[in-house]
Amino acid sequence: MTTRIDRRMAKLKAEGCPALVTYFMGGDPDYETSLSIMRALPKAGSDIIELGMPFSDPMADGPAIQAAGLRALKAGQTLGKTLQMAREFRKDDNETPIVMMGYYNPIYIYGVDRFLEDAIASGIDGLIVVDLPPEMDAELCIPALKAGINFIRLATPTTDDKRLPKVLENTSGFVYYVSMTGITGSALADTSKVAEAVQRIKAHTDLPVCVGFGVKTAEQAKTIGASADGVVVGTAIVNAVANVIGPKGEKTADPAEAVATLVNGLSQGIRAARLATAQ
Amino acid sequence: MNKPTEPNSFRTGPDEQGMFGIFGGRFVAETLMPLILELQRHWDEAKNDPAFKAELNDLSTHYAGRPSKLYYAEGLTRHLGGAKIYFKREDLNHTGSHKINNCLGQILLAKRMGKTRIIAETGAGQHGVASATVAARFGFPCFVYMGATDVERQKPNVFRMKLLGAEVRPVNAGHGTLKDAMNEALRDWVTNVHDTYYLIGTAAGPHPYPELVRDFQSVIGTEARAQILEQEGRLPDVIVAAVGGGSNAIGLFHPFLDDRSVKIVGIEAGGRGLDGIEHCASMNAGSPGVLHGNRTYLLQNADGQILDGHSISAGLDYPGVGPEHSWLRDTGRVEYVPILDDEALDAFQLTTKVEGIIPALESAHAIAHAVKVAPTMGKDKVMIVNLSGRGDKDVHTVAQMLGMEI
């Protein structure tokens, strides 16, 4: 069974172009604005959308994504509303893959079976759940795969060759390589080491490898894109939203436009990576 | 919820996956997973290594001052006029609480693993102080994450940690309490995973922490069981301990779990009452969920977002609980009941007056339960209350509650 992720990745590979994977926080700063950001992403050059599910205790996230999650929760975002957002997005766009990313507890409380059913109905293609390592596959990974949803695993610098097969075993869609040991939004790791790691993972799998954590600028996206099949940008996008929100929650500019401008630049960086490789 | 079938023994958990029934597990980011497996390897070796045990025993005796006394609280017993009350005097340990038991064990593990940097989270500061203490003793740099609210209400302990050479890092997220400190400690760990040992202070977190913290704390119950047999010639009728994350409680309870005649009661922080959200009674008013590496009872809303809770006692101010307690609750082996802020405050003052012992506010919750039930029991009944820590750290909080100035 192929998903939108598989098809999009195959198409980009044929074009020799790395994927631009964009993370934003569902419901930040409010439902309507967040939906407008989501709708702006594909046109601005995003190939895959990561839809953040806010959680009160995001243990692997830095201050920017923590704050974005709290803004969303304060505005009344719930997992149900995040699914609804995807459903509304799908009315106009049935091509762009959507990956939901977050932590397990809200899904566990929603109910795994009910969640998977609603995720399928909302046009969700993949899941990234930070606190579900392969040791906990029975919780959500296996049921998701059975339901036809990709379960995208994080591989990290601490995932050695001995452990990689276990991490890759039930991974599908793509592998998300975390460029450093750390939380989201930290400084970018040594890019030559990242390239080495991507090669190391590719020796174990045919799946595309996307790299995230620390990529903020078009230049960085270009460098990473030269060795990886995709580049994930999250904190920079979340910051673009935060930058146009005043201290009382008032918008000083259109968040969707701010995000689109940023993503446009990143997209050009990625395309430059393809050109650089082609030459 | 279906009650799990009663096992032949309550002392065999967790299983290989780190589960106590549906509770426990290893819900952590991939970055931490290899380290957690490495910790488990070292722990499995250490617990069967006579040299490890000998070193820990030596430190427990000569550095921490074990065994702690089992003290017949005659004044309190007479005042209440019912069951005979004994205090297990963990307040007399070096650093003033049970926390040192676990810290000595884990610092030896850290050394064994070749780690060079210690991080810890703390609520009341007791675990922070104990961590800073063992880090000083063994020459490790130590960083303690502490909620900003707790930094404010536990100033004496903050100063102690600084004197001991630790760096206290205040955490402003959330309500600035133990939950937020734990999030931040996990973020540090995931960043510095190559050289850092996370010295978790309670019997919670990803497997194998709940197991190893319990085993290091079980010295409390093992001693108490032998002491009561010697002093009373029989097992107690009731044992009581306060439960935040639940390390002093599981330490007392575990050696008694298969003594079916012993009633075991864990005390949760009832705060200002269970009607609202100003309490930390996760097992009385919460539901199972996943946080901080394990599945356990949590205070949470219908969307699975974790609530902050409230307790007068910083050490109980946590919206979750160790997974083994959740399992003991569901199996019915242990009863968990809430005690309100005011009841704990009354017990704090009473113990001070009739026993000349200033208990920690955490321990005062357990004493408050004794105050309630001892008078309803015959004078031939025996009860052990875990006096998990001394209350000097709480005098500012108590003064404020009583409207006094120091």
From TrEMBL, chain A:
Q: What is its EC number?
A: 4.2.1.20
CDD domains named among the record's database cross-references: Tryptophan_synthase_alpha (cd04724)
Q: Which InterPro entries match?
A: Aldolase_TIM, RibuloseP-bd_barrel, Trp_synthase_alpha_AS, Trp_synthase_suA
Q: Name one GO molecular function term.
A: tryptophan synthase activity
Q: What does the record give as its pathway?
A: Amino-acid biosynthesis; L-tryptophan biosynthesis; L-tryptophan from chorismate: step 5/5
Q: Which Gene3D superfamilies match?
A: Aldolase class I
Q: Where is the active site?
A: E50, D61
Q: Which domain of life is it from?
A: Bacteria
Q: Which family does it belong to?
A: Belongs to the TrpA family.
Q: What does this protein do?
A: The alpha subunit is responsible for the aldol cleavage of indoleglycerol phosphate to indole and glyceraldehyde 3-phosphate.
Question: Assembly and partners?
Answer: Tetramer of two alpha and two beta chains.
Identify the PANTHER family for this entry: TRYPTOPHAN SYNTHASE ALPHA CHAIN, CHLOROPLASTIC, TRYPTOPHAN SYNTHASE, ALPHA CHAIN
For this entry, the protein name equals: Tryptophan synthase alpha chain
Q: Source organism lineage?
A: Bacteria, Pseudomonadati, Pseudomonadota, Alphaproteobacteria, Hyphomicrobiales
Automatic annotation (TrEMBL), chain B:
Which Gene3D superfamilies does the protein's record reference?
Answer: 3.40.50.1100
Cross-referenced PROSITE patterns: TRP_SYNTHASE_BETA
The cofactors named for this UniProt entry are: pyridoxal 5'-phosphate
Q: Which residues form a coiled coil?
A: none
Outline what the protein does: The beta subunit is responsible for the synthesis of L-tryptophan from indole and L-serine.
**Subunit comment:** Tetramer of two alpha and two beta chains.
Q: What is this protein called?
A: Tryptophan synthase beta chain
